[in-house]
Design the sequence.
């Protein structure tokens, strides 16, 4: 398998796809394309690399899969549903619902707090709409942990698809100083110390300085 991704520093959707491939336990290659560079515009226009012009794209042999949820489902079909989705029906329904809610929503959080795993903006002022997204996410995490997560430290006990979908949100909360209470707060800490998340952040720190996207820091400057 080969996964095409954006910079690890910034590409939140790539993080989801990469965690999903890691979870398969299969060997894979990575191609990281630095976003907003000449190389990015060139590779983005190549359907033989990125059929949707977006990352992540997974190539499994000659088959391309794009959209993070479709990548998760491809891998779950091939390598075992239980590594991705809870076995219990009610838990699985909740996991699929919150993963889809993440995939489609939380637009205020996503636009006000772009993922930048290397940055830190303590005292960042959240808009009311972003605060609503944070409250909703915090409630979902606490409910998953309380109702379905008793067999381990992740949302549904063992690490799975819902954790992959929310991993970039955990990174955003860390960058923008969003600290949650109770079960949701404990879950934040658990995710920040997951070995694959720390591996991703270490790789981001090793990316070339000229891959820096200055507009992200410019946006952040408006709210600190
Ligand atoms: N819904 C897609 C979102 C993918 C996406 O928007 N990726 C960003 C990078 S994090 C991208 O490729 N942006 C380029 C563009 O939209 O032109 C998914 O789940 O994978």
Sequence:
């Amino acid at each position: 398998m080969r996964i095409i991704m954006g910079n690890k520093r910034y590409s939140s959707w790539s993080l989801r796809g990469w965690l999903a491939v890691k979870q398969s336990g299969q060997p894979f290659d990575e191609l990281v394309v630095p976003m907003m560079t000449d190389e990015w515009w060139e590779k983005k226009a190549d359907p033989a690399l990125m059929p949707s012009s977006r990352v992540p794209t997974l190539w499994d042999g000659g088959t391309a899969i794009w959209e993070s949820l479709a990548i998760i489902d491809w891998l779950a079909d091939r390598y075992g549903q239980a590594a991705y989705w809870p076995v219990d029906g009610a838990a699985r329904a909740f996991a699929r619902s919150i993963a889809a809610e993440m995939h489609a929503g939380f637009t205020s959080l996503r636009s006000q707090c772009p993922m930048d795993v290397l940055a830190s903006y303590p005292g960042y002022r959240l808009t009311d709409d972003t605060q609503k997204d944070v409250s909703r996410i915090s409630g979902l995490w606490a409910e998953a942990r309380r109702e379905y997560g008793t067999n381990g430290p992740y949302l549904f006990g063992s690490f799975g698809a819902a954790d992959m979908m929310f991993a970039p949100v955990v990174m955003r909360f860390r960058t923008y100083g969003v600290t949650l209470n109770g079960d949701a707060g404990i879950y934040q800490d658990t995710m920040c110390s997951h070995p694959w998340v720390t591996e991703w952040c270490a790789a981001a720190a090793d990316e070339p300085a000229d891959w820096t996207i200055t507009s992200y820091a410019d946006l952040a400057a408006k709210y600190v």
